[in-house]
Each structure stands twice: as structure tokens, then as C-alpha cells.
Amino acid sequence: MSGVDWAQTFGMGRHGLYVWPAFGLTLVILGGLLLHGWRARRRLQRDLRQRWLRERRP
């Protein structure tokens, strides 16, 4: 069984300076999109609930 050289895997030679920041930026953007979608969904549910309550009143 051969061992994995983690320093070489994470370093990626000269490409590591490009790959890891791009990977991190991708994770930050995806996290932001998830947070934005979650907040928009909550806002929409709140607005729809308020509208339903207004229309339900006599």
C-alpha cells in the first residue's frame, strides 16, 4: 500500500496558488447563495402569511 504525500497534494506545485483560492472563493459564493435563498424564502413566507391574514379579515 502506498502512502499519500499530503504536502504535495495540497501544494499542487505552482498550481496551488491558483487552485486553493479559487476553491475557497467558490465555497464562499455557494454559501452566500444558500444564505440568500434561505433568507428570501423566509421573507416570502412572511409576506404571504401577512397577505393571507389581511385578505382573510372581514
Automatic annotation (TrEMBL):
Domain of life: Bacteria
Annotated membrane topology: Single-pass membrane protein
Subcellular location: Cell inner membrane
Transmembrane segments: 18-38
Cell inner membrane is among the record's keywords: yes
Keyword line: Cell inner membrane, Cell membrane, Cytochrome c-type biogenesis, Membrane, Transmembrane, Transmembrane helix, Transport
The keyword Ribosomal protein is assigned to this record: no
Listed PANTHER family: HEME EXPORTER PROTEIN D (PTHR37531:SF1)
NCBIfam families: cytochro_ccmD
Family per similarity comment: Belongs to the CcmD/CycX/HelD family.
Function: Required for the export of heme to the periplasm for the biogenesis of c-type cytochromes.
Designated name of the protein: Heme exporter protein D
Gene source species: Pseudomonas benzopyrenica
